[in-house]
Fold each of these.
Amino acid sequence: MCGIIGYCGHRPAVPVLVEGLRRLEYRGYDSAGVGFLHTDGLKVIKAKGKLCELDKKLAQENVFNATSGIGHTRWATHGEPNEPNAHPHVDHTGRLAMIHNGIIENYQEIKKELLAEGVTFKSETDTEVLLNLISKYLQEEGEMLPALSRALNRVEGAYAIAVFDAQNPGVVHAARVSSPLVLGVGTGENFLASDIPAFLPYTRDVVFLEDGELVRIDASSWQVMRVRDLSPVEKKVDTITWDVQAAQKGGHKHFMIKEIFEQPKVIQDCLCGRLATDLDEVRLPELDCLEGAPKRIHIVACGTSFHAGLWGMYLLEQWARIPVQVEIASEFRYRDPILDPDTLIIAISQSGETADTLAGIKLAKQQGLKVLGLCNVVGSSVARESDYVVYTQAGPEISVASTKAMCSQLTALLLLTLHWGSKTGKLDPKIHRDTLHGLRSLPELLEKTLPALRDRAFELAREYSDADSFLYLGRGLYYPLALEGALKLKEISYIHAEGYAAGEMKHGPIALIDPKFPSFAIALDDDLFPKVKSNLVEVQARSGEIIALTNVGLDLEVDHRWDVPRASGPLATFLALPALQLFAYEVADYLGKDVDQPRNLAKSVTVE
Ligand code: F6R
């Protein structure tokens, strides 16, 4: 989704803004722009495409005088991705420039009103409508704060905006509802951005802004107030402990491959401080105020996080004997669900800013339910909206395609299962002990296994990168992995792929099987292996080619065996998952795709 940055300070603002936008590139975008005060007035420079296009235009200008301004990377919602629709937008008087992330739902009604008053528009965006409403109120009120408050109280929808006024150039105003916005507090300079990495080289001191808050920054001060009535809000300054280095590629060709290879550390970090040294207990102090185990669980998430939730359902029901339902957040939020008051909602989100997941949390809270956020980004909206938070501790994930975050979500779900399994007394103590033991050695096993997995993925990718479609098959715990394998392949290589429960294939998709429609099976050593094997025979009977992730010694004849080391029970998932990710990565890289920023996708989906 769109990235926004604002700066007021002592440095030349434009390079700060552009570098900040570069660090927000992972959010996905299709155009970019900056706005600042030039010697001859308000200057806005925009370009369709990647930041290098904006760089080319900026190189022809003298941009070094301005010490404040705003910048934006746009992920199109209203209007096609072209230069007129790119941000910043300028109001019809030419005085204000504004950037926006989100969607203004009632913009058409406001646009009609402004058109009737003679305002003209240069773009198709909802942003330009909101900006002209602010401009109208600024003329009436004479001051920016009451104008902003009036305009924002009128609009419906989601936004993070930042406004720059050419008549007051050392100041930027910003506000948010349901779209991320953080304030970076520096020395003699202050920043606003959609995400912390945008200003991390300059400051680690941040203030997380909440929905309905408005902030005014200049070089030496900042104030937060409520949009509603401009009453002041006391805010705490937090200090970020991770650094820019953690958000760089570290010698890898892409962030995605770097992040896949970080998974051993991710597991270790997620376990850190949560396993008692005597190995007998999982410690989750975050959940101390929850008495015992929940009676029922309803998991709400999107995309890869939804797949992690589905995997969690299999495990929580089997081991902790807690009834679990898993639901895609965009469905849950509009379904008018009947929720038992004993139900604990688990909202899973890497970014913590996914609009549908946040709406699911709000709905559950309106019904009086407690929410546990399983989330990666500290201080994110999911973390703040939830009653309890278990951080997955995967570190910043930059590649749009989620990899290490899912690994951390699975680790956290496994810990929750062990924790609640002992509380319900339903989990066999031997399984509990063996799993904890296995978890301790898992990072090392994965570390050793990853290079060989990559080599095999590389070989298979060359063989199959000309496929038009793929079917991913798995059962039980590996059904969610089949869904995830298919999602990874389609999102970064643009090869069509479907994930199916292997036993469901005969109810329809089997009709697709022919020699040109390969299947990717997850056929690891578990109770369901004989069933999966029979399903694969059905594929072979239709001359379908098969790649199978399996274990040495298992009796399985397919076109391409991919043997992965054994690990006990659900821990095998942690070896299968990177194999799926690496296959998708190698195919996409071989095909020359933009692996870290696939077309049409955004890292943080802050609109519904
Ligand atoms: C896929 C992917 C998306 C996200 C989904 C939810 O690789 O990244 O499917 O998993 O948009 O995002 P979060 O977890 O941030 O809520």
Amino acid sequence: MCGIVGYVGSEDCVPVLLSGLKRLEYRGYDSAGLAVIGSAGLRVIKNEGKVAGLQARLPASGISGSIGIGHTRWATHGRPSEENSHPHTSCGGDIAVVHNGIIENYLQIKERLLAAGHIFRSETDSEVVAHLVEEKFAQAPGADSDARFFEAVRLAVRELEGAFAIAVVCDACPGLFIGARRHSPLVAGIGDGEAFLASDVPAFMEHTRKAVFLKDGEIAVLTAGKVKIFDMDGKPVPVKANVIKWDRAMAGKGGYKHFMLKEIYDQPLSVEETLLGRLTLDEATLKGEFGLDYKAARAITRIHIVACGTAYHAGLVAKYAIEHFARIAADIDVASEFRYREPVLAAGTLILSVSQSGETADTLAAVRTCRAAGFKSLAICNVLGSTLTRESDFTCYTHCGPEISVASTKAFTAQLAALLALALQLGRARGALPGPEGEALAAELMRLPRLMEKTVSLDKNIAEVARKICRKGSYLFLGRNSNFPIALEGALKLKEVSYVHAEAFAGGEMKHGPIAIIDEGMPVFGIAVHAATFDKMLSNLHEAVARGARVIGIMTEGIPAGGQLAARFDVPKVNEYFSPLLTVIPLQFFAYHIAVLRGCEIDQPRNLAKSVTVE
Ligand code: M6R
């Protein structure tokens, strides 16, 4: 994720843009920059590091003006550096662009523009937008610069594939700037004689509470005090402004009461951003995103996964998925166990570590042990430049932005997304998933973010059921196959934020002991989705019902449950190995609502730290 912001009005835009960027730093902070049109024309300033670093350089630059755009970056294409920072400019330096998202067809566009003589200065996908707008602006007919600029942006964004939210300024048009979005968020703010554009409302909330949320495929033209919206065909769209009622404390949380809730809702987007560009069928993608070319992928004899806590649960889903899709034997250890148990690893084993922070002491120690023994390691990590990424041979970043809540939610699903993409790509590279099968699975995985959006809408109904069970002292979670780790994760989440006793078992283990703890009214969460083990899982749930449990099913929509479930929450039908991306969401909501109802501290639960850097 990155944060973008824009302003047009009568004030100096620099302080407005800076304060907006600071409020968007939760979306990323490896570099920041501004493009401002003032008396000296269009000027750009960028800086590697946080927004404060950019701020420190501003007085000496003398940059000011009443229209400008800004960006705080979380690197995807291209390392964090000044050249890769936004805004990116056209060859003539008269058009500047900030971008959030990933442009999947940027290489094709870049090659064409290079052949046409454009000169690129960065390694980013985003820079193509500046050159593309420049090309279209030069070709646009007529003498009205504003109309030509609008047409240039419209035609440029129509060529883009992937996800984007952009803001563009043009030196020839000092009275307006333009924004457009597809999949990445963008919201305009209408003030008194001024207008704003940002990735999120808090960026401009201190100036105006009149917000216009852009829909996918919309283009906004912002002038002082006015916002006009158009579709991609250039037809005007009615502008519907909402009045934002959040207080200051809510604003940082995007209007949600807690970061945990906001982060649960962020998941469709963060999973989409994590998947973007990782599922195209070519060796370059496998190499670029996972550090493995086809030869290296085929040479892997086993995969050994190490992680802790929630990241361990993501790794456990990956074990099932890698064995199923790639037909590579996969083992997994809790990192703290691995490091002390003298593991015997076969030659050719790839060490796969999973960590949100990249600073977890046990995970680091496990990776160090393996690398010292000569094994290659691949890290799935969220924090750019963290110790794990520096000490691994390869890194695949999850693109979910900083996770604030101690109880991990969006980092978990982003890890799942990256790991599922890895499993598919390994399967394709090794011939375990022949052409059409691999392509169909990749296309299905890309659809998951839309289905996650549908699943987050269960929130309200879950809150009602949570009310009925929140005073219980003990909870049970059951799942099988790739949803067994989701049962573990559901129980962990509930323990972390509600401080209640919760246990999880593989459904098949029930009769080997755990069934003895079920008594009248005990809440049992059962994940029974469309899968090879569905019938078995359902009979586990019926056994629990027969012993008086209050069973809550997390099920595939339309699948008959029989028996007397106390409640069921349905998720869309998908490949069973992808279903964890959906089934975990209701369990995250249950943990959240039960904790709220019990009056617990949500974002900083007792005794827990966000990053466990000691043993
Ligand atoms: O930063 P990491 O992903 O390595 O952290 C691992 C665990 O400490 C972490 O997942 C922990 O279990 C969270 N509190 C879970 O919500």
